[in-house]
Design goal:
The protein is α+β, with helices and mostly antiparallel strands and 169 residues long. 40% of the residues lie in helices and 14% in strands. It has one domain: Nucleotidyltransferase, domain 5 (2-Layer Sandwich).
């Protein structure tokens, strides 16, 4: 009689939380990962490095930081395309100020829809000066970044928040 030939499935894979093949490819690059996550209430961006005892978060910027630190209006969404762009921009500026120049994008299990919020954050990081490998076709257009699809008042809020981020770093 043969033994158990089934392969055990890791807990986070079984729960649908981690794609270990993609994670291994990202870790083999030996560069910090620019992690972008969009929740129900905000966009979060982190610069994460690997360590044997676990991942280390070097920098963290969320949509709530836009309100608290960078003069983003409290009544506006913290997860929209413009807000995601500004969160990525703030992370990029903070990464450059901390001495990080390169990163690889980690979107986890999020859908990779061209022009989406994840890639709006990527565009913010790239425009801030962080070197992240990407294709220009996936980045959102200028009118979406400026919030033309939302409201005319968003463009002014983006400019003031971007200036506030520039002043902080």
């Amino acid at each position: 009689m043969q033994g158990n030939r089934r392969r055990s499935v890791l807990r986070r894979r079984k729960a649908g939380l981690t794609d270990y093949r993609r994670r291994l490819r990202l870790l083999r690059s030996q560069q910090p990962r620019a992690v972008v996550r969009v929740s129900n209430t905000r966009t979060s961006c982190q610069l994460v490095t690997w360590a044997a005892e676990g991942d280390k978060v070097a920098l963290n910027v969320t949509g709530n930081d836009l309100v608290k630190k960078f003069s983003w209006p409290d009544n506006m969404s913290k997860k929209s395309v413009p807000a995601s762009y500004l969160v990525g921009y703030a992370l990029g500026k903070a990464a450059i100020a901390a001495g990080h120049e390169d990163a690889v994008l980690d979107i986890g299990l999020a859908a990779s829809t061209p022009g989406g919020r994840v890639f709006a954050a990527l565009r913010g990081m790239v425009e801030a000066g962080l070197n992240v490998p990407h294709s220009e076709e996936i980045l959102p257009a200028d009118d979406r970044i400026n919030g033309a699809h939302i409201d005319d008042n968003v463009a002014g809020a983006i400019e003031t928040t971007k200036a506030s981020i520039e002043g902080a770093y």
